[in-house]
Task: inverse folding
């Protein structure tokens, strides 16, 4: 009986020990009793396995540890491994481990191996992926490897999103690769060469040197190469052909030599494959990408394209503290887009509808030349100079067959627009940071110069027949208008900023700053009436459409900012600035002057609080001016499009936006989990809005612009990624909610348009084994728009995407893959928007030659031939409903040969 009771008590004790959760923390020190950062710490128990790393102070923390027989091991390259056991009788829920000292390992110990690498390391502004912790197929390019990383999505065209935001720049070992171009780096660098991928919240060189981060950061990826890949020559050669006259050919050669980099790439294809992310902003067939398109296995580019690309990049350390880099890229893109659209504009008593079928051609030549010089002087002063020159030459053609109705008035005709334009642009960014002997004292100056010009020749032909059915019999009227437009415009600007940071205590700094901005615009336009010229046998210019206009925006901002940082876990700042602005406009021909003066009081505030090593919270407020663009202010009535007349308003004021945002981030390193959520509210004073007018018994609409108050938007997003059960199953959740309260004027009546957009995405990646992997994705989007005038109207559209992809390695040399996505659309006004396309792709890859240097790929794209109808677009603004569909690349089959080129340095 005694033994039974003892056994029962012992079993109950073990059961309670198993169910009791513990929180364990401790400190790792080096032999000098200093905190040791980056130590790999692994905890195992009967119920849990957790991994973390020590902080900059040597601290580590495990939460919610279950089970008994707890063992903790401490390892770091170059140090002896230490293992600690937690007493089985320890019943406390909070345990502080004795300090652990790691002693340097002077000799190689046989039989010691690294068993696990921490996959993801989170810090304040950086998320680091240690590539050795992830499984990639040998010879994969970086683009394919990025798709396997939690929190990163890659669209089919190569656009990369990290933690829900688009990546704008790529660095290799801290230096821009091809001027920071994303596609060039991800489509050329082998994943085998990469040691780490660092996703950085980058606030700009000016903010980094000041040490004060107030503006919205951009996402930057820094690729850290392995040590044995810093001196290597590599590249690839690709050639392929297929049905529907599809072809592709590309070559790339790269040389890395301990800081010196040289690369040359070139490509020609008609499969919508671009070497470069940079391109002409005026290019037809391009549209802003969205994370909602991730894992929709369509080709997201509108129209059919023929693309030729070439570029080279050079970077070198001229001296120990001097870096020089430069790049050149050229893209020639020919695009042909056909489509149809529906535009409805609601007025009181009028409902103007415009149905168009169109064909646009675009022949775009784009050159881009970048350079970067950075030098650190012996006294630690820093000088940076970054010029960027681009030149864009475009030939554009547009023909539209359109049918416009308003009550009993119908216009049936054609609108043709052909143009050629040249657009050189130069940006120069210069920064100087002065170092002082007193720690924390800084002086930073930044100057940005911009020179932009545009020369454009345009021929517009507008013809239609107007039918008035209100008369009996109906009245037919012919309209014919032909204009030849010559336009020269230029924009020159300078932005200068100076900051002096002075610490006046161990925890406080005071910043005195001054910002200056000057923008000069000039425009000269002549409009020739070709019909009148033919009639009078001489050039006939329409004086009312001619323009000679000068515009200047001048702003200066002076202020003071206080920052308090009592420790590494808390930072707060508060600032105040005075910003006088002046807008000047001048029409020399009429001798008319327009002037607007205002003084903005601009407060700023924010704090960031790191509640513990894995949780931080930040709140920021910032005020900002937005000046009107040239279209808004040019004081001329432009009726080159007879149905949509636009008149600028030279008396517009600058907008002023007030934005407050808060972000919460949670890292659970032991479980490789990451959560981020952001909420932002933006209110704009003097918002520049459209003022539209239509007349009864007419299909003509006129638009001008005015300032109005009442605009605001609210945006919220979250993202969460976590392994499920084990690291072979990865779940990513992303959600967005946006609400816009837009203001416009229709027939001088104030119109309030609200738009609510909600999207939710879930992605599951499963690596079954070294020979099989799958991906499943679902996206849902709701778009609800309402406007109040001329009558209450509501539009609700839904879109659901289901997709899956799988890849199987039949052997070490054969790979078979398939992708399928199904989209469901409903609620749109136009029938062509409510289609439900199914996309199916498949491919077979065969590797051969020594080290698998050769790859033969057989692929079928869009097997059901439904991608050609996928270029849909919708927009609901003011009293306008606009929906359009463009053609895209359809079904084709292709055979591609790829040869990898690699040369490693000889081992000494």
Result:
């Amino acid at each position: 009986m005694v033994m039974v009771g003892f056994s029962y008590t012992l079993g109950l004790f073990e059961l309670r020990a198993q169910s009791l959760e513990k929180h364990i923390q401790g400190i790792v020190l080096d032999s000098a009793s200093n905190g040791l950062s980056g130590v790999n710490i692994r905890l195992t128990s009967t119920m849990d396995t957790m991994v973390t790393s020590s902080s900059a102070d040597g601290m580590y923390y495990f939460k919610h540890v279950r089970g008994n027989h707890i063992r903790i091991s401490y390892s770091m390259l170059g140090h002896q491994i230490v293992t600690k056991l937690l007493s089985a009788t320890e019943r406390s829920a909070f345990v502080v481990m004795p300090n652990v000292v790691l002693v340097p390992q002077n000799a190689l110990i046989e039989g010691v191996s690294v068993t696990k690498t921490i996959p993801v390391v989170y810090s304040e502004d950086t998320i680091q992926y240690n590539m050795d912790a992830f499984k990639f197929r040998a010879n994969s390019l970086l683009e394919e490897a990025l798709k396997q990383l939690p929190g990163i999505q890659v669209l089919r065209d190569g656009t990369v999103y990290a933690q829900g935001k688009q990546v704008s720049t790529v660095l290799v070992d801290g230096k821009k690769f091809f001027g920071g171009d994303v596609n060039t780096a991800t489509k050329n660098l082998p994943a085998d060469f990469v040691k780490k991928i660092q996703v950085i919240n980058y606030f700009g060189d000016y903010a980094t040197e000041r040490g004060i981060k107030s503006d919205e950061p951009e996402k930057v990826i820094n690729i850290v190469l392995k040590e044995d890949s810093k001196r290597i020559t590599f590249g690839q050669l690709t050639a392929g052909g297929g049905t529907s006259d599809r072809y592709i050919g590309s070559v790339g050669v790269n040389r890395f030599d301990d800081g010196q980099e040289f690369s040359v790439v070139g490509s020609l294809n008609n499969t919508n494959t671009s070497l470069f992310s940079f391109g002409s902003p005026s290019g037809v067939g391009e549209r802003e990408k969205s994370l909602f398109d991730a894992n929709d296995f369509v080709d997201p580019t509108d129209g059919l394209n023929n693309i030729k690309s070439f570029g080279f990049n050079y970077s070198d350390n001229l001296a120990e503290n001097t870096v020089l880099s430069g790049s050149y890229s050229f893209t020639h893109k020919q695009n042909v887009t056909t489509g149809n659209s529906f535009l409805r504009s609601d007025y009181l008593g009028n409902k103007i509808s415009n149905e168009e079928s169109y064909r646009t051609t675009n022949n775009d030549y784009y050159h881009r030349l970048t350079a970067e010089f950075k030098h650190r002087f012996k006294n630690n002063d820093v000088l940076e100079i970054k010029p960027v020159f681009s030149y864009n030459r475009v030939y554009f053609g547009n023909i539209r067959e359109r049918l416009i109705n308003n009550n009993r008035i119908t216009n049936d005709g054609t609108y043709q627009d052909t143009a050629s334009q040249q657009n050189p642009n130069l940006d120069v960014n210069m920064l100087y940071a002065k170092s002082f002997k007193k720690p924390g004292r800084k002086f930073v100056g930044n100057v940005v110069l911009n020179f932009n010009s545009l020369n454009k020749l345009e021929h517009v032909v507008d013809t239609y027949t107007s039918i008035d059915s209100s008369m009996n019999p109906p009245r037919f009227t012919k309209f014919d208008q032909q204009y030849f437009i010559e336009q020269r415009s230029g924009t020159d600007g300078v932005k200068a900023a100076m900051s002096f940071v002075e610490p006046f205590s161990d925890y406080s700094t005071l910043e005195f700053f001054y910002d200056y901005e000057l923008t000069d615009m000039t425009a000269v336009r002549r409009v020739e009436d070709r019909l009148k010229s033919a009639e009078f046998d001489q050039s006939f210019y329409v004086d009312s459409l001619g323009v000679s206009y000068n515009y200047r925006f001048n702003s200066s901002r002076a202020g003071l900012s206080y920052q308090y940082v009592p420790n590494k876990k808390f930072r707060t700042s508060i600032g105040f600035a005075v910003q006088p602005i002046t807008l000047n406009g001048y029409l020399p021909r009429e001798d008319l002057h327009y002037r607007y003066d205002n003084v903005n009081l601009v407060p700023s505030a924010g704090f960031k609080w790191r509640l513990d090593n894995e949780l931080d919270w930040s709140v920021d407020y910032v005020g900002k001016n937005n000046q009107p663009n040239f279209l808004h202010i040019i004081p001329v009535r432009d009726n080159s499009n007879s149905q949509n007349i636009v008149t600028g308003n030279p008396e517009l004021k600058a907008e002023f936006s007030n934005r407050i945002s808060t972000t919460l981030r949670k890292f659970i390193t032991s479980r490789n989990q990451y959560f981020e959520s952001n909420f932002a509210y933006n209110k704009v004073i003097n918002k520049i809005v459209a003022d539209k007018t239509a007349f009864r018994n007419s299909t003509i609409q006129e638009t001008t612009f005015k300032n109005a108050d009442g605009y605001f938007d609210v945006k919220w997003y979250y993202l969460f990624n976590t392994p499920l059960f084990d690291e072979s199953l990865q779940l990513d959740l992303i959600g967005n909610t946006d609400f816009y309260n837009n203001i416009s004027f229709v027939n001088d009546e104030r119109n309030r348009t609200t738009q609510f957009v909600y999207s939710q995405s879930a992605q599951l990646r499963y690596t079954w084994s070294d020979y099989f992997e799958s991906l499943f994705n679902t996206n849902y989007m709701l778009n609800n728009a309402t406007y109040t005038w001329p009558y209450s109207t509501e539009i609700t559209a839904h879109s659901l995407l289901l997709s899956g992809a799988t890849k199987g390695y039949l052997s070490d040399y054969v790979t078979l893959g398939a992708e399928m996505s199904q989209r469901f659309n409903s609620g749109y006004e136009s029938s062509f928007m409510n289609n439900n396309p199914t996309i199916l792709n498949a491919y077979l890859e065969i590797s051969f030659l020594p080290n698998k240097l050769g790859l033969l790929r057989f692929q079928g794209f869009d097997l059901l031939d439904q991608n050609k109808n996928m270029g849909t677009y919708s927009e609901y603004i003011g009293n306008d409903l606009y929906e359009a569909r463009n053609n895209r690349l359809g079904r084709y089959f292709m055979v591609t040969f790829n040869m990898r080129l690699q040369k490693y340095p000889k081992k000494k």
